[in-house]
Amino acid sequence: MYSEKVMEHFSNPRNVGEIENPSGVGTVGNAKCGDIMRMYLDIDEDTKVIRECKFKTFGCGAAVATSSMATELVKGKTIYEAMEVTNRAVMAALDGLPPVKVHCSLLAEEAIHAALWDYTEKNGIEIKGLKKPKEDINDEE
Ligand code: FES
After folding, report:
1. pLDDT of 69-108, one tens digit each?
2. Which of 49, 63, 83, 128 is deepest in the core (most CB within 10 A)?
3. 130 pLDDT higher than 50
């Protein structure tokens, strides 16, 4: 049912953890399954390159695997290029997900966007196509 890559990222997720004083952080949740994902970004002020990206996911295996792959894909990209890391791109990099698990990859895209939004808000920057996260649960702690 799951591709080898999904199983591999699930068993051995990359970039798990937190970044102290992150440039941007975003937390998103899926109301239906109750899973939560938080993404931390460390961004170079001058070049706007994402130097580091870490995540914490309270969620299903597909959510863990997609967050892991998403962090790998955004690292080294500029904040503008990071917009290319859509849920489709993450799924393609994982050789696909079962249809019932597609929403899990959406969580990864939304978490990246929420973290980017946090950064742009703090720094007065605009990223084309980036919208305010539907639900920002950063404050609900
Ligand atoms: Fe909720 Fe996968 S079932 S993110």
Report:
1. 999 999 999 999 999 999 999 999 999 999 999 999 999 9
2. 63
3. yes
Q: How many angstroms separate the CA atoms of 80 and 85, rounded? A: 10
pTM of the model: 0.93
Distance from the alpha carbon of residue 121 to the mean position of ligand 1, in angstroms: 28
Would residue 104 show up in a list of annotated catalytic residues for this protein? yes
Q: State the Cα angle at 87 between 45 and 51, rounded to 5°.
A: 20
Extract the tokens encoding 138.
């950063």
Closest by CA position to 115, among listed 65, 61, 89, 77: 77
Q: Distance from the CA of 85 to the center of ligand 1, in angstroms?
A: 19
Which residues surround ligand 1 with Cβ inside 6 Å?
30, 33, 35, 59-60, 62-63, 101, 104, 107
Q: What is the DSSP letter of 14?
A: S
